[in-house]
């Protein structure tokens, strides 16, 4: 072997050893976190805008892979297997990279990911304390809003936790109905801005407040003819997580309060949270037209709104109980007027946790609908299991 080849071989060996040492310092570079979440249920009825149907079924089966790519980037892929109407669908819910070492409290995330608006949206469904998201989420965000885009986030160097962020997304799942396929939708359809601030109260309590704004360039619907509602339903059926009620502007206010004796959440803890949604500029008219209100069942309010409040108490390491109340007030478009709808949901859940990785939940839901998508008042019971396999990241606050 020539001296030149020897030097090249030694250099390659040195580089290999150096790379291996760097990977050894961070085990996730060679051993990525791999996890799966199993979700199954039995339900005694159908709920408006919900993914779960009456009878036996599977919720979201989640498969996730995540790791630090190097000292500068982190990456994650999450695939979700769902069953709808006897068919199995595979959806890519997350596929993103995120910076790890940007200065001044800045970070960038790019790819497909959960938007950070509101309180619940950036959390995966299997972490919820109830079998379904509140009606406001199901109506205005399709359950939980994930999309292709980019996020810039900033964490301020303050005593209180204070973060701010802006996002830009494709926005396809939040588009208004397009009956004839003639609308010219913007390619970048959704922009968001958000801020969250929080802190501790002694050693036992903590809190967080949030404000979010979502601008939907493609969210305003237009009255065209009497078949528009049917077309809207068909359009939304193409995307299992599409919003059913859209508008140009969505405002969200959220809060959460958590308590645990002596700050130890393992044995006992309480979480109280709530959110309010207001979706405005939902209805577009041609110049010279106005909203008609020729009888008492017709609305001229060009907005939707919804809210919920919930409380979950873990009274032992293995048992927790939760209560939640929420309602949405929406307007359905018919010709050149709006018909008001209302849905109220009262829910109670009891969950048994054999460990941090397994939950069996029984939930009772009383739903009251006033002219809401043909649903009548009903009492629904749901028995659900959620089981996690493999390593899984820490849950959001």
Structure description:
The protein is mainly β and 397 residues long. It has a domain at 115-390: Porin. Helices cover 10% and strands 51% of the residues. The protein has 3 helices and 19 strands. The protein has helices spanning 3-25, 135-140, 228-237; strands spanning 33-43, 55-58, 61-68, 73-84, 87-99, 106-114, 146-155, 161-169, 190-201, 205-216, 221-222, 249-259, 269-280, 283-284, 303-316, 319-334, 337-355, 358-370, 378-390. The chain has a 16-stranded antiparallel barrel. A two-stranded parallel sheet has the order 11-14. Strand 17 (337-355) and strand 18 form a beta hairpin. It is globular. Mean pLDDT is 85; it is low at 1-24, 225-239 and 286-290. InterPro entries: Porin_dom_sf (IPR023614). It comes from Shewanella frigidimarina (strain NCIMB 400). This is Zinc-regulated TonB-dependent outer membrane receptor. Residues 1-24 form the signal peptide. Residues 220-243 are annotated as: Disordered.
């Amino acid at each position: 072997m020539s001296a030149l080849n020897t030097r090249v071989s030694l250099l390659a060996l040195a580089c290999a050893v150096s790379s291996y040492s760097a990977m050894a310092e961070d085990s996730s570079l060679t051993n990525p976190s791999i996890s799966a979440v199993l979700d199954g249920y039995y339900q005694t009825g159908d709920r408006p805008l919900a993914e779960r149907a009456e009878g036996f079924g599977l919720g979201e089966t989640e498969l996730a892979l995540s790791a630090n790519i190097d000292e500068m980037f982190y990456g994650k892929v999450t695939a979700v297997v769902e069953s709808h109407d006897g068919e199995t669908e595979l959806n890519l819910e997350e596929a993103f990279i995120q910076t790890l070492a940007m200065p001044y409290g800045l970070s960038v995330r790019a790819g497909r990911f959960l938007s950070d608006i509101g309180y619940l949206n950036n959390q995966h469904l299997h972490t919820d304390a109830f079998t379904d998201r509140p009606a406001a989420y199901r109506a205005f965000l399709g359950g939980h809003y994930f999309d292709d885009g980019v996020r810039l986030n900033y964490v301020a160097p303050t005593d209180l936790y204070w973060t701010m962020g802006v996002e830009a997304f494709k926005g396809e799942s939040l588009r208004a109905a397009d009956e004839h396929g003639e609308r010219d939708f913007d390619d970048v359809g959704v922009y968001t801005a958000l801020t969250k601030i929080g802190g501790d109260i002694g050693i036992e309590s903590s809190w967080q407040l949030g404000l979010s704004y979502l601008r939907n360039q493609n969210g305003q619907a237009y009255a065209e003819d009497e078949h528009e509602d049917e077309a809207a339903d068909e359009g939304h059926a193409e995307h299992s997580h599409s919003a059913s009620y859209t508008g140009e502007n969505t405002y969200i206010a959220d809060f959460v309060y958590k308590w645990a004796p002596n700050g130890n959440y393992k044995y006992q803890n309480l979480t109280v949270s709530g959110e309010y949604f207001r979706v405005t500029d939902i209805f577009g008219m041609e110049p010279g037209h106005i909203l008609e209100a020729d009888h008492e069942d017709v609305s001229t309010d060009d907005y939707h709104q919804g809210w919920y409040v919930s409380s979950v108490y873990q009274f032992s390491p293995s048992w927790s109980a939760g209560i939640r109340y929420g309602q949405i007030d929406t307007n359905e478009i018919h010709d050149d007027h709006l018909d008001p709808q209302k849905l109220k949901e009262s829910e109670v859940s009891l969950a048994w946790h054999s460990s941090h990785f397994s939950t069996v939940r029984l939930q009772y839901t009383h739903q009251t609908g006033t002219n809401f998508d043909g649903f009548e008042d009903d009492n629904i019971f749901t028995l659900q299991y959620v089981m996690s396999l493999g390593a899984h990241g820490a849950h959001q606050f």
